[in-house]
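Bug #77: duplicate submission created two jobs. Keeping one. Sequence:
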Amino acid sequence: MRDFVLLPEALVVVGAVSVMLAGRFGWLPRGWRSFLPQAMSFLVLVALVVELWTGAALTSFFGGAVVQDRFALFAKAAVLLTTAVVLAATDWSAEDSLHLGLAMPMLAAFAVMVAASSANLLALWAGLELAAACGVVIVSLRRPDLGLRLLLAGGVASALILVGLAFLYATTGNADLAAIRVVLTGRSAALPLAIPLLLLVAGLALRAGVAPFHVANLPVGLAASPLGAGLVLGLVAVAAGVVAVKLAAALTPIPATYALYASVVAALAILGSGAAALAVRSPRPRLAYLAVGQLGWVAAGLATHYRSGLAASLFLLGAFAVAATCGPAMLGRAEGGEPAIVGFGALRPVRAAGLSLAMLSLAGAPPLGGFFGELSVAAALAQSGNFVVLGLALVGSVMGVVAALGTLRAVYLLTPLEESRRGGLAALPAVTAFSTAGVVAFCIVIAVYGLFSYPIFGLADQGAEALGLR
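Kept job's structure:
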């Protein structure tokens, strides 16, 4: 079994590179190209099955630089499932390139897998940068100006992260995460790391698009293609979240140097995004703000510096991944920047159901996975005594639920005028058997994540334990 541990990564990379080469050199006949989404989605599902089969083998490779443990298994399984579903649910007639549109999410998934399995600072940074580069590529296909903006903001984020990691390495003399935790254990003076870790938290928040650092990612996510928006708002943020969880586990001996920063970011993200979601009316901005708010809950779990808090953040990150990545794909093509949303439930009932579940999960409405994740984080906040953050988070979460219900009212209860219906039909996603099956699969995944939240949270708790937390 140990010989096949890295097979899922190999399958994803080979599939992505093969699709790009086929598009570049025209290897596939024109009639076969329509079957590429089915083939790549099936390939990712195969990688997921192999990951679940081999994930029980706890081992390491390349001198300990790559580690297969329960944390890596949980994160890699979540991102592979998310990638398979989003490739199936996407309306490919709304995308700018079939081949790059298929390859970039797969490479971003591989990047998250690299970060999840990494045992040192360099591999964490490399995985995060690869995921971000995939987002830049897919956004630039439609809007090169926004791709440049995303690249510049990413450069700032990368610089902040590198400075923070460099100081962490210089202070501890180690790049290995486990060794860093051992060195920091028992240290009373953590002041030399306070400012570098502030830069590190700011860089990760900027890369993930967490408020108030979402000024670059949010406009890009609103103007990109549906798949591009899902990649920027979803998979890239998941990569930043995985890196943040692993770094928080390594820094648990010195919580005073980073917990306050994470608490401030979490409070601003949850409260600010809830208010912003109420203020906007358009569906995609509202979906984006709800995603930002749920990332704030993930940051709040990290601020607790308890095993229960990190486990709750990891569990919530899995629910966030599938909802934030696949949510924009449910809306489909935007005509003049605005998808048709009024009467969407009557015009596209299956996609409307998927959009509703995605928004409710991101808002933290019961009984979906987002609710149970936020509930677990809230319990950890109460356990750690962070009642100010907990109170602000609850207020922001209530505003997010109200905003999501407002969108559902437009989807199901409002009737579009005839001229709006005629104008909106061009903006609706195309109906195909495969994309409909992908949306149904998304609805099942979201429902199952909430229905089996307790055993899934047990797996996330095992992942936190694998990071050395007790």
